[in-house]
Fold each of these.
Amino acid sequence: MEHQQQQNQQAANDIQDGSGGGSGKGSFLCRQSSTRWTPTTDQIRILKDLYYNNGVRSPSADQIQRISARLRQYGKIEGKNVFYWFQNHKARERQKKRFNTSTTELHHHVPMQRPTSLTLANNKFPTNINSGYSPSSSSSTGVLTVGQIGNYGYGSITMEKSFRDCSISACGSSTASANESLSHNFGWVGIDPAYSFFEPKRFIDGIHEEGQ
Amino acid sequence: MEHQQQQNQQAANDIQDGSGGGSGKGSFLCRQSSTRWTPTTDQIRILKDLYYNNGVRSPSADQIQRISARLRQYGKIEGKNVFYWFQNHKARERQKKRFNTSTTELHHHVPMQRPTSLTLANNKFPTNINSGYSPSSSSSTGVLTVGQIGNYGYGSITMEKSFRDCSISACGSSTASANESLSHNFGWVGIDPAYSFFEPKRFIDGIHEEGQ
DNA sequence: ACGATATGAATGAATG
DNA sequence: CATTCATTCATATCGT
């Protein structure tokens, strides 16, 4: 994300122990050969391309097959990886948005349906996530228009992070009003502290065993 | 926290690294200090308060907004910081507990990178967060905090989208092989407008193999 | 300075 | 589609 961290660890493909027998995760050097898919840079690039430049959000099973087949040349990959990738990418995008926007007026769905494309003339649906994105219903509507997507080049997808700003507001008051005591005025968090009752699950710490 | 280590260094400061000429690590011109959020003591205190005294473990997006807004008084913070904080705190607590639980001679296979048993029994409960305020029985002084948020400097977070993507896709053609992304027609992705929906379950299920 | 540890951030995989 | 868990990377800090 902000700054790719483990993206460089697997620049080459063939990360995960492609060796059939194995599970030789113990191998030094190649860490991560464990169970989880480690996308290569090429794979990620293509996935993002599909996501941002082609509006692919929830590819159909069929598309997933094709995509994974295509990505397989850059490294080991399975259909589910593609599936999860899109799911996660989309979910996190939305989630982040949710963190930082007010909830007071949350309109759940803006019934904005992306044109079934094929209009190729004025077909200019949001090319980047910043612009209005089509909420729901983007699921595999025939988005692609095999003909031409136009929009080559990543001119717009560069949302980057654009560091908030350099202003470092002090917000002094180190101890000024940092006195939220607690147990009483947490209305601002949304929990209801007014009653002494509490959720057994939450408080009884040693019990809720999340085996999972 | 576990045993506060940097708790004192940024007591009031205006968020880490005033840098400027600091050299050292920052040394980036305007880059408001490091890339990563460094919670202030007040922020941590409140977070722990919520965690231990109010049972907040996985705040909803809604709560995250409120919390981060509230914490912003004490320093720069974004929703994702709160989100990650709770995620991490919960996860690590669980991790530690895991060790503790299997106190039996589990010596074999401890893939953990850091047992970190050092601060184990120190602070896993509401006992003392650090500051000297009394948690549960805080005589409910009219704290009022919620009512008026100072909100000094930045009224608007304006944190753009703050997304990933910067990593590779944009212009860095690392391996040069995957060049079809931009100048390609994605016909290979297939456009199956007809049946669009796709059962994840079915797909995932049949996919769960592969492992080799 | 280094090495170890604590912890913020990211993301694959699941589950509801 | 939302949430959560597990893992892992990255970096700030501290101890020696």
Note: The longest helix of chain A spans residues 79-99.
Amino acid sequence: ENIFDRSRMAPKTPIKNEPVDLSKQKGCTPERNPITPVKLVDRPQPDPWTPTANLKMLVSAASPDMRDREKKKELFRPIENSEQSDIPDSLQYDMVDDSTVDEFEKQRPSRKQKSLGLLCQKFLARYPSYPLSTEKTTISLDEVASVLGVERRRIYDIVNVLESLHLVSRVAKNQYCWHGRHDLSQTLKSLQEAGELQYGELMTFFQHKEQDLEYKFGERKKETIPDSQDRPLLDFSEQDCTSASANSRKDKSLRIMSQKFVMLFLVSKTKIVTLDIAAKILIEETQDTVDHSKFKTKVRRLYDIANVLTSLGLIKKVHVTEERGRKPAFKWIGPVEFPGKSGELRERSPTSDPLPGTQRGDCAPYQICATGKQRFTRHASFNGAQPCEGTRRKVSSEPNSPRQERQDEYCSKMINLAAVCRQKIEEDTRNPSITSPPSLLPVPGDSDFCVNPLPQAVFPVVQTDVPSLSLPNGISSQAPHPSMLAASKTENGKPSLLPNQPFLCFPSSPLLMLCSGLHENNLRETLSTTGDGGNRSAEAQAAVPPAVCQKRSSHKCASPSAPADDEEPAAKKQTMEQSDLPLSLVVPKKPFESPKAECNPGNGCTSAVHLEDYHLDLASPAAPEAANKESTKPLDSQEQEKQFQKKDPDEPSPGKEHISKENANQPFLPQYLYVQPTAGLSSFNFLFSANQAPGAISLAANQLPSLSVPCVVVPSAALASFPVVCSPTITSPLSPVPDGSFSAATSMNFSMSSLASTTPVFIGTTAVVTPKVSPTPSVDPQQPAHPSLHLSPVLARSCAAVKLDSPVCMGHPVTLLKLQQPSSTPLTPKSIRPACHEAFFKTPGSLGDPVAWKKSEGNQTRNASSVQRRLEISSTSPD
DNA sequence: CGATCCCGCCACATT
DNA sequence: AATGTGGCGGGATCG
């Protein structure tokens, strides 16, 4: 067969000369009626066959490698339309002939010669970038395949990507219509818009936040874009989907994936997208199914797409160095701004300029091009799409409906983000030493990584402002953002640092660290920097080496100010912390002893039980309320935080104090809890530090918002003592999702001590993190109970009891996050919640996870165990 | 050894 | 049923 093909290829000679011409010829001419699916095997070589040609062909067949190889190199750079590639071939042939057969084998064409990118170049070379409008160029897959000497399968890879950009459209079986790049800018524009809708929130949020002070991320988008639902843009992107039976269809995947991939670039400020992040984001599957295999597959596809895009000159490969090392990434080098019509588009980068010559604002080509099948449906379906909340999406109507996708996407985004974060975390955890754990911390080298990855990545992560923390790279750090700060500031009056914030979010790694209150002192540290009345103790703690800390922490807890600790310079602390953090991730820096053991078993048990109950509650009735609370509650959380801070600084709230004392009593409390992603739906990881240095945490706060990850941050330690904390964050502003189905992310804190092993993590429903979350000090520690969640009374008690019993200090506050799961099926808010809740509640460790979890990953058990394991390790590790 | 990604099996879709 | 499409992932290559 190959030979046969090759022979065909030979004919290409003529072609080579003028790719363009050929295309034209082929295309329009009546001769080949384009549409017919006819197999053209013949076609390809209409005339040119000369005997010689045959020989050449044969030769080439024999040693295609050689030919290709050399050719390839030359071609390589030229790319684009030039026919050059062909020419060389011809030359090559001659060459080949000589050595030919013998050699052919020995020189197998290196893989590169066969690369999709090269193939794509050849493919593109055959057609004019800007064909005359009048003629239509039709492309016969068979023909092309034969000419290019590849299997048809490969052509599909190329065409699918090109189709996603509307460079070609499918006319009929085996027939594609070549449009060229006339509409490329339009398409890109559409994608950009769509991308903003889909991913923009995240991106913009972060990005803007950094750059602009105000980041309401939701708002902007909305302003420009009426409703996510309405946007037509998507339509085109999704049309494909529609054609197939909706979601289920697998077909569209490559095309859609391609579009999404492009969207990421268009939405990304940096225009650089790392493969892994893209893969994670593009894995729409709900949940965290982060299967490694799945990820790998996704990456493979992305390479395919990237190769084509590279050939189109839209992106180029680059490397971003992140924490762990350099990661493969791609940079958008295509047009950034599009002459578009509406002002909607926001142009993101100044430099950009529309395609060089192309700007035809014609109507969207794609539609036109589209063969018939697809389109109609799409409109209908798409219009309605709404974000997650989707109350209405009638799921029922058709499982497939595209809109679902859209909505789901929204949700899935969050999820994906979470997943991404989670992975990072995981990675980090793996390499505790190396990794970023400290991301928060200003570790010189490492710190970067923390930040960096994200920024480059699709969404720039916001970095914490904290001065001390300031990232070395400055990458992320640039913007301290007010958002959080502001909030904090308002409350605290200290803008810059989030003194209050108890959480740390690692941009790069999607970890959330929670510091339990203990140490408020620590917070203080941050505060101190800010100027608050910092407590030194915090610093001291931070400063204190982990190992020491562990015990100390407990002590500290007991006595807020740890004498020795305080003294250390913040810098040190940071470093320490950093180092610690990493450890913490992997290994809790402070090894807490098995929490269970320490904690009163009874308590722990009870608490655990309660939790479960709690879930249940949430699942059913409570959930909604909880959500509401949260939504309403942000304040509370803030308050809590505030309290937290307050306490931190100096005086622990009474309750806490006593708790802290208790903690003190208890020797070991794990300062941090690492929650594995698996547990949750979402894949977030949380770290809770009981005693942690606040500073880190503070950072987190900033980051969080930036991340916009649907995570909820758990209030600080102070809260820790309290059973549940709700994260205030609400999607509200941005979220297209009105319902707030996700809106509220509830987080619960309870003393971990008993639970620690279990590390209860909950993912909140989509709760998008609102920037607002910023810690506001307001609430009393005691009150924390309000927990948005409905805790079953019992639970609450238990918690309370626990607190008392267990050292609050330890306080491993657990947070629950509700994640909305992007369930495949559209969920109505109502429906969603219950489900979510259920799912949410698994604690990896303690709770055995039920099947549900599993679906997300089979690992859960593993996770749980791992968590525990980590904990244990930590305990040991600490010295 | 990780990054790339070619290759082609095979399921599903379309004729 | 034949043929078109294209998801998918093993495993070969590259760097």
Note: The radius of gyration of chain A is 29 Å.
